[in-house]
Amino acid sequence: MKLTRYDKNPIVKPEDGPAWESACTTNPAAWYDGRTVHLLYRAGPDTDDHPIYLGHAESTNGFDFRRSSDKPVFGPSEDGFDAGCIEDPRIIKFDGAYFVTYAARMFRPGAYWRKTFALNGHNPPLPEEAPSVARWNYTRSGLALTPDFRTWYRMGPFTPASVDDRDAIIFPEKVGGRFVMIHRPATWTGPEYGCENPSIWISYCDDVLSWKDSAVLAQPAFDWECVKIGGSTPPIKTPKGWLTLYHGVDKNHVYRVGAFMLDLENPSRIIARTREPILEPEADYELNGLVPNVVFPCGNVVIGDRLFVYYGGADRVCCVATAPLEELVEHVLS
User: Fold this and answer.
1) Is the pTM value of this prediction over 0.90?
2) Which of 73, 86, 139, 317 would bridge 10 by S-S if both were Cys, CB 3.0 to 4.6 A apart?
């Protein structure tokens, strides 16, 4: 079974206008409030330093989106851990507030798609004794709260400074009275961690910031994901388990999408897993862009009996693909 692409993709793309989103509008998070689908998408300018912001768009049918502002709704801080970029968000909601997790860097990432790109070329000169998170511009995961996608409160980082950790996704409700998160600490590899390649980990906590009780949830298992895997979208609660989409990367740097079903009461237990991807680069907007051969979901919502999956195409545009929710669940379990 494959997800079905919207025939009018992409749904958000760079256009003539604001410079802050001239290079990309991609990797969207999503939330459906019963009337409106909200997208938070990653956006950046076509400049050498390439700071990254979040834009906001809305739709009443899940397909046709309009921007709510010609300015970023959230962006890098002045001089904090996320002063370089805010990217790849995921959205959940607790008690009237949206909880947005995001990947962040201390310094601007630079135009990584250009042949002249130099690793860490936009970092300040730092001594060898400086923390590795700064010298290598590691990704950390941050948390922000917003009631309306206009007013924002930074909660700070919640992954260690010494770990390159991203794809942090909090479950949309507590399990056993605790918060649950999946994430991808890329530097937790080797015999001491029990995984050879960057893998998906699961962690628990009581206050959304102090994550502990961490363990490997899933490792690369198939050729299409042999280099690394990471979580993609917030889990969807179904009667048969937590439906959880993830991405995998192969030796040719092609990004594809698979799915897990996790136990409702013990999400550290995988009930089932797709052996083949349910979405892979095929359309021109997925094959060609800033980074070719990429489909990268960050958001999913359920409208009626259908799952809408919002994803980035080739690191440049926002797209959507759908599937009947029950059919997808049965496919993962089969």
Assistant:
1) yes
2) 317
